[in-house]
Structure formats: structure tokens, C-alpha cells
Amino acid sequence: MPKMKTHKGSAKRFKMTGTGKIMRAQGRRGHFRRRKATRLLQQLDRTKPVHKTNRRSVVVALPYGSPR
Question: How many DSSP H helices and E strands does the chain contain?
């Protein structure tokens, strides 16, 4: 059986925690940062877990990095 390939774009966007959660970065940080509130930018810096409806597609894209 051939090796499964990791989707490299997904590997750069998602990180696994020790407990098995898949974490993602938030959007809305690309530009116009001076007009956004400092508190909002601090909140956008944090990572959030992937929603349960999107988890399966991320697991398929990362066959070796995610527990099934």
C-alpha cells in the first residue's frame, strides 16, 4: 500500500495539541490593523479549536498528524 500524502497547505495552517485537539489561527488580521481595536487584535492572536463540522476534512488532509 502506498504512503498517504499530507496536504502541505493544511499542515502549515493547523497544529495538534497534546490532547488531540486541532487548533487554527483566526482571520481578519491581514490589513487595516491600525483601525482595529487593540483588544480585538489581541483576541485574534489566539488560536481556536477547529469546529466539529470541519474536523473530519482536516483529519483527512493530515493523515499522520491527527488521531482518528
Answer: 3, 3
Contacts of residue 58, defined as CB under 8 A and 6 or more positions apart, other chains included, come to 10, 14, 22, 50, 66
d(CA 64, CA 5): 9
Nearest to 58 by CA among 4, 27, 1, 15: 15
CATH 4.10.410.60 fits 8-61, yes or no: yes
12 closest CA partner among 61, 68, 67: 61
Residue 5 is given by DSSP the state P
Per domain, the residue ranges of the chain are: 8-61
* Residue position matching grid coordinates 492572536: 45
| Per-residue pLDDT tens digits for 22-50 | 999 999 998 999 999 999 999 999 999 99
